[in-house]
């Protein structure tokens, strides 16, 4: 059975910064071949136009697929599924699929569609990423420009539903594996802290809330979440079952160049062999919780075992398996820790080596 191709669903209102986040991801894909599925909406698929003209080397034209109508969640069977099948049937398979929903689409019906016969064995939801406009949400609104969203709503004929924005926002938060609080550069640190804490309390347990400026998130934080969201619909309950559509034009300042990954940091921790891999996995999970680490991955040397133990953690969820003999590599435990800037490196090293 070939491995399923991972797909990341990006949701969030008009102007939250979905396109900026995706563009940054494509520009920093580190050789991954990413296909993009976007809602064509309003003025002739403006997002597709932006991204097709992106001139990014590994973003070829055939890797950008537009859906022919606004609401992805209303047209799953006759539009989304055939689009996915076409992507999956390519001779040269892509490494990852990113799906940008119209901001007025409910995420849940789309996630459920991954259980559809014909695609369920070939693709899986790697993670649902909800992008929020930090400044707007902190001020008690859901989006910077409500009028633009209303105009989008009015322009969409495919609209089967009128969901209040507050319910739509709750649905986007309920479905998320990761919430990206964008535009945090416009908030003071205390406001940003309070907003992150509030969103964490509204989200499901274990959901990561990260802050970003100009949607700049490292590819290893955004992709590779392994959530298999389609198998876990119960937890991602909908608030209501009616809704509407949106498309994304981030009117935020274009100063993307001087922001980058300085908001994130990564370092390597090495330690001697571990004797009990189960206990060590539990220890890693504790350290991740205590220090709010986003990703932790690497290889563990287990006493008496010739094989390396691969360890990968997304938030507090730790997966391990033995992959191959160490061979000529030194028998040591090497873990890469990635998180938002300001991690207490000494404390983390000490806790992992304990």
Structure description:
The chain is an alpha/beta fold. A seven-stranded parallel beta sheet has the order 3-2-4-1-5-6-7, sandwiched between helices. Strands 8-12-9-10-11 form a five-stranded antiparallel beta sheet, with helices on one face. The radius of gyration is 21 Å and the shape is globular.
Give a summary of the structure in a few sentences.
This protein has 354 residues and is an alpha/beta fold.
- Content-based structural category: alpha/beta
Summarize the helix and strand pattern as letters.
EHEHEHEHEHHHEHEHEHEEEEH
How many helices in DSSP terms?
11
Estimate what percentage of residues fall within beta strands: 15-25%
Largest sheet entry:
7 strands, parallel
Strands in their spatial order, largest beta sheet: 3-2-4-1-5-6-7
Taken from the alpha-carbon principal axes, the silhouette is globular
* Average pLDDT number: 76
Cα-atom radius of gyration: 21 Å
The tally of beta strands, per DSSP, is 12
Helix content: 25-40%
Low-confidence parts lasting 5 or more residues at pLDDT below 50? Answer: 40-46, 239-261
Q: Span from first to last CA?
A: 40 Å
